[in-house]
Structures are given as C-alpha cells and as structure tokens.
Specification:
- The protein is an all-beta fold and about 120 residues long.
- Helix content is about 0%, strand content about 50%.
- It contains no helices and 11 strands.
- Strands 2, 4, 5, 6, 9, 10 and 11 form a 7-stranded mixed β-sheet that branches.
- A hairpin with a 6-residue loop joins strand 4 (about 35-40) and strand 5.
- It is globular.
C-alpha cells in the first residue's frame, strides 16, 4: 500500500515561491495519478492540480493556473508542485493524493490515498 508524504511547506512573502514535493513509499507512485489539494481554515478542501500517470497530462484549477506547475520524477517516485507568485489567499494546508491511473481530475472523491498535509502560509 503506497503511502504519501508531503514536504517543502513553510512561510513565504506574497509574490514568493515554494516547491512542494510528494514522496511515495511502500509502492510506486508512478502507477497512480497524483492530485494536489488544499484546505484553508473554515473552507472545504479544494482541488488545485493533477497529473495523469498515463501521459503526464496536467490540469489546473483556475485559481492557480499560470502560477503553479505540477511535474513528476518517475526515477525518484515523486511529484512536485512548483508554486510561484504566491498570494495570501494561497494560505492553506496542502495535500497530495494518489488516484487510479489515467485519472485527470481534481475532484477529491476520486482519490483514495492521501498524505498527511503540510502548511503553506503566505504573509508579509
């Protein structure tokens, strides 16, 4: 059973950048599609980006499109979310999740393996 662990979160000023990584253990994440989600206090979990295991196709929510880039390193069994141009409204706990191969969706209910989450705070 693959387990996911996020890393790379922290505090950054508005306009800054962070790179989140999602590392898999107990199996290969290469067999799964990967999604990134976030949840701010008092808000529902929001899907922001996903990458298919089939062809590497990506999809981004409008709120992050053009600022965030999702990629995966098949040799390292990781998926990374490069976040540029961060805004205060990007502050949230960020989660990566694994779903079925060929999935290209940011709907949380399609994903059944989740990391524990990592805090990203954007503030001056």
């Amino acid at each position: 059973q693959v387990q996911l662990v996020e890393s790379g979160g922290g505090l950054v000023q508005p306009g800054g950048s962070l790179r989140l990584s999602c590392a898999a253990s107990g199996g290969s994440s290469n067999d799964y599609s990967i999604g990134w989600f976030r949840q701010a206090p008092g808000k529902e979990r929001e899907g922001i980006a996903c990458i298919s295991s089939h062809d590497g196709a990506t999809y981004y929510a409008p709120s992050v499109r053009g600022r965030f880039t999702l990629s995966r390193d098949y040799t390292k069994n990781t998926a990374s979310l490069q976040m540029d141009g961060l805004k205060a409204e990007d502050t949230a706990v960020y989660y990566c999740a694994a779903g079925p191969p060929r999935l290209l969706s940011i709907q949380p209910n399609y994903y059944d393996k989740w990391g524990q989450g990592i805090q990203v705070s954007v503030s001056s």
